[in-house]
Design goal:
- The protein is mainly alpha-helical and 224 residues long.
- Helices cover 66% and strands 0% of the residues.
- It is built from 13 helices and no strands.
- The radius of gyration is 19 Å and the shape is globular.
- It starts with a helix and ends in a 5-residue tail after the last helix.
Length: 224
């Protein structure tokens, strides 16, 4: 696996712009060091690198590559790994993926990767393996990591009319006490998405749960 990572590193080096490093690190609150690779070039590198990978890669080897990228210091490696995962077809998902998803949710955690993992990776996993989700969600809702709590609030974000509204309200009810910015924002964001097609339900939930502040403002943004 290291050979593939080394090849990727060489290509990222070719498109890095060191003059952008300080701004990129400041934007991410100096949580991670950066190479200085912007989103566009990073995604171009990912596409070319993806094409270079052997078609015979097993699911286990694929996750080995993700984990190796995730343990690199520079943020672009984590973002690129997520770019790659976003191209995976739901048909390729396996039940055992959840242990790796848990790993990437719990390591190098910040909103720029958490949200993509929650909405697109966990979201797909939950659609393919709904029978696995009750125990997973139970564990994550009670987990001390607010990033896992946030994931519970966001994984249905793009489900539209397929959203299980009862479950969504139960997540909101259980987490509304948590004043962490990223939890309150996620509560409001999840409701705002539903308000695009069911504003009356959102208004009702906001009233029932007595939401205030950031969660309220985000939830009611499009509600007349």
């Amino acid at each position: 696996m290291s050979t593939y990572i080394d090849d990727l590193s060489k290509h990222l080096e070719l498109v890095r712009d060191s003059s952008r490093v300080t701004a990129m690190e400041n934007y991410m609150k100096n949580k991670f060091p950066f190479l200085g690779v912007m989103s566009g070039p990073r995604k171009e590198v990912m596409r070319a690198w993806k094409e270079s990978l052997p078609l015979t890669l097993t699911r286990s080897e694929t996750w080995d590559l993700v984990r190796e990228l995730w343990q690199k210091e520079e943020r672009e490696y984590h973002q690129l790994a997520l770019d790659w995962m976003l191209t995976w077809n739901i048909k390729s998902y396996e039940k055992s993926d959840i242990e790796h998803i848990y790993f990437i949710l719990n390591n190098q955690s910040w909103w720029d990767t958490i949200d993509g993992i929650a909405v697109h990776i966990v979201g797909k996993y939950a659609k393919k393996f709904p029978e696995e989700m009750p125990i997973i969600i139970s564990d994550w809702m009670s987990h001390p990591s607010f990033w896992l709590n946030r994931t519970c609030l966001l994984y249905q974000l793009k489900y539209k009319e397929q959203t299980n509204l009862g479950l969504q309200q139960s997540y909101i009810h259980a987490l509304k006490w948590n004043k962490e910015f990223f939890i309150q924002k996620a509560i409001g964001w999840s409701l705002r998405e539903v308000s695009k097609w069911n504003p009356l339900w959102v208004k009702s939930v906001v009233q029932q749960e007595e939401l205030k502040g950031l969660a309220y403002r985000e939830a009611m943004k499009y509600v007349p």
